[in-house]
Amino acid sequence: MGGWAIAVHGGAGVDPNLPQQRQEEAKQLLARCLNLGISALRSNLSAIDVVELVVRELETDPLFNSGRGSALTAKGTVEMEASIMDGHGRRCGAVSGLTTVKNPVSLARLVMDKSPHSYLAFSGAEEFARQQGVELVDNEYFITEENVGMLKLAKEANAIVFDYRIPAVALETCGAVAESPIQMNGLPISVYAPETVGCVVVDSQGRCAAATSTGGLMNKMSGRIGDSPMIGAGTYACNLCGVSCTGEGEAIIRGTLAREVAAVMEYKGLGLQEAVDYVIKERLDEGKAGLIAVSNKGEVACGFNTTGMFRGSATEDGFMEVGIWE
User: Fold this and answer.
1) Using CA atoms, how far apart are residues 203 and 215, in angstroms rounded to an integer?
2) Left (φ > 0), alpha (ψ -120 to 50) or beta: where does 194 sit?
C-alpha cells in the first residue's frame, strides 16, 4: 500500500470562455474540499466516510451542479440523484428523483447502511428520507437565480442544454437547424458536460470508495435518470480502485465507464492511469466525459476528452494539484 489518496471533481466540459473569476471560485472550492478530505484522512476516517463528507460539502455550495445549485428540469424544479460505493465488500447505495433532501449523497449512504436495497427513487426515496430523519428543505432552496436564467435560455433555444452554458445551437422539434458537436442517443444537443460532483478516496488501509452527486441536465425531462446514481456507470469502487465519472450521462451509461476502469485493471493488468486513458479512449464512442480514480496502491488519476474538467487531487506524500484545463 502506498498511503492515502483523494481526488475530487466538479464536472467535465468547461466553457473555454469561462470568466477568470468563475475559474478561481471553482479552484478555491475544489481546494477547500480537498483540504477537508485530507484533514479527515489524517484523522484516520475511513474512505467511505471521507467521500461522503467531501461530496456533502460540494452539494452545499451552489457553484457546481449538485444539491443547492442543481440544474432545473423542463418544469423548473430540481430532481437530484447520487450514489456511493464502498470498495470493501462492494457495498453501495443510490438515490434518484430527490426534491427535498438537502444532501442526496448522505441519503444514498443510508440506503447502503440502513435498507435492504441498493437503489431508491422518487417518492420511495423521499419517504425513506423522512423515515431516517435526514434534513429536508423546500425545493426552492436548491434553485439559484443563475439557473433560472439558464433554463429560460434553454427553453428559448428549444434544447436540452448543459448547466451554466448559453445554448450555441438552436434546435427545432423535428431536427437540428445547425450542426451540433454532440448527439445524445442520436439526437443533437447544445453541449458542455454537466458540472456533476464526485470524490474518490483510498485510505491508509488501502480501502477504496467513491461517491457522485448531480442535478442532471438543464431542461431535462422530468423523471430522467443519468449515470451518476448508476453503480458501474457513474460510480464504482472495489478492492482495486474507486472511480467517479462526469459528462454525457447517456454515453457513460452505455460504456459502463466506472466499472470498465476496474475491469481493465483486473483483466488486462493495466495500471491506474493506463486504465483511465484506455477507457476514455475506447469506451465512450462519440460521447464526451471525464473521470477521477484512485487505486489501492495510493495512486490517483484522471482523464477526460472534453474541453477541461474541474478537478483536484492529493496524496499522502505531499502531492496536491487543482486544475481545470489539460
Assistant:
1) 28
2) beta
Which grid coordinates belong to 153? 435560455
170 in Cβ contact with 154 (< 8 Å): no
CB atoms within 10 A of CB 26: 22
Q: Which amino acid is it at 73?
A: T
Q: How far is it, in rounded angstroms, from Cα 268 to Cα 258?
A: 16
- pLDDT, tens digit, 9 for 90 and up, residues 101-151: 999 999 999 999 999 999 999 999 999 999 999 999 999 999 999 888 888
Quick one: which H or E segment has residue 94?
Answer: strand 91-98
Nearest CA-CA partner of 224 in 70, 48, 31, 73: 73
Radius of gyration of the chain (CA): 18
Give the active site residue among 99, 100, 144, 196.
Answer: 196
Cα–Cα distance, 14 to 325 (Å, whole number): 8
Question: Which grid cell is 322?
Answer: 487543482
Instruction: Tell me whether residue 192 is exposed, middle or buried, using C-beta atoms within 10 angstroms of its C-beta: 0 to 12, 13 to 18, 19 or more.
Output: buried
Q: What pTM was computed for the model?
A: 0.91
Cell of 299: 495512486
Please state, in angstroms and as integers, the Cα–Cα distance from residue 322 to each residue in 25, 64, 313, following that order: 12, 15, 7
Helix (H) or strand (E) segment spanning residue 175: strand 175-176
Please indicate whether residue 73 is annotated as part of the active site: no
Q: What is the dihedral of CA 169, 174, 179, 184, to 10 degrees?
A: 80
Q: Which of 242, 247, 245 is nearest to 265 (CA)?
A: 242
Say whether 22 sits in a helix, a strand or coil. Answer: helix
Encode pLDDT of 23-61 as tens digits: 999 999 999 999 999 999 999 999 999 999 999 999 999
8-state DSSP, 83 = E
Structural contact between residues 145 and 83, judged by C-beta atoms closer than 8 angstroms: no
